[in-house]
Design brief:
2 domains, DNA binding, membrane, rod-shaped, two-stranded antiparallel ribbon
């Protein structure tokens, strides 16, 4: 049985109107209608709320409809990708800042022969990390705004 039919059957079994169920879930009546007509599917948080209201297991609610199962798997995958992107952004920016701080801490010296010794390579590496962090951050924001 598809998810929409399950919701409709459960709602009728508990003698609830679409409006009453919508109020319990803090959504609009149109949202309930779109779920029942298989135009949209709820997210995982909403599925948990539905299972609690109707006192059924998530297995019964989700596994009955392969479309719902694949949507929740896709949502989980998207969330994992977003977290990885955010962590990558933070790590890259911190690594860039770390390179600049390390260069400042090491400083530069001139030996007896008049040769300058300084960790110049830390500057381009720091800028590279900052640039990669900014690119990663824009990708994260773009994906976030798209969904």
């Amino acid at each position: 049985m598809d998810f929409g039919m399950q919701i409709k059957k459960l709602r009728h079994g508990h003698q609830l109107t679409q409006e009453q169920l919508a109020q319990k879930l803090n959504v609009s009546r149109q949202t309930i209608s779109s779920w029942e007509n298989n135009r949209n599917l709820p997210d995982l948080e909403m599925v948990v709320s539905i299972s609690q209201i109707f006192e059924i297991s998530l297995d019964q609610l989700i596994l009955g409809d392969p479309t719902m199962t694949s949507k929740l798997v896709k949502d989980g995958s998207d969330m994992r990708k977003a977290k990885i992107s955010l962590y990558t952004t933070i790590i890259m920016i911190l690594a860039g800042i770390g390179c600049f701080l390390l260069k400042m801490m090491i400083g530069s010296t001139i030996d007896n022969n008049g040769v300058l010794h300084e960790p110049f390579f830390l500057l381009p590496i720091g800028y590279l990390f900052l640039l990669l962090g900014l690119i990663s951050g824009f990708i994260y924001l773009f994906r976030k705004l798209r969904h």
